[in-house]
Write a structure and sequence with these properties.
The protein is of the alpha/beta class. The protein has 2 helices and 5 strands, in the order ββαβββα. The protein has a single domain, classed as 2-Layer Sandwich (Double Stranded RNA Binding Domain), CATH 3.30.160.
């Protein structure tokens, strides 16, 4: 799995993980610099999606801090590309880790449903 981190703000750096697999994961941090620990957590969580559906082409993860007084101001959008389709999940929580976890759980259900639908047509 290849992974790139892109910050929407101009002071971010781009890292590429030398691990080579099929799914490409891009992490986009909007107006802040993402911590390497968070990126590693996201990478591990996205790796787990491949056991539910192995034809995932790429994943784009957008991390945003909403400008609200609410404690749940960390927003995560995950867009998964599979052949012939695209799935988008948005979650907002107190931490990015919690939002990524909830988003990944939703994507697991969607990918299992997609796999079952494809098997029914064979």
């Amino acid at each position: 799995m290849e992974m790139r981190i892109q910050g929407i703000n101009n002071d971010s750096k781009m890292f590429i993980n030398p691990k080579i697999c099929i799914m490409k994961v891009d992490v986009h941090a909007v107006n802040f610099t993402v911590d390497r620990k968070l990126v590693d957590f996201i990478q591990e969580r996205m790796d787990k999606l491949e056991k539910y559906y192995d034809r995932v082409v790429s994943a784009d993860i957008f991390l945003k801090v909403e400008r609200t007084s609410d404690k749940e101001n960390k927003a995560v959008e995950i867009k998964i590309n599979v052949p012939g389709d695209e799935f988008l999940v948005k979650k907002q929580c107190k931490t990015f880790e919690e939002a990524v976890e909830l988003s990944a759980e939703s994507l697991e259900r969607v990918l299992v449903k997609r796999k079952e639908k494809i098997r029914a047509h064979i």
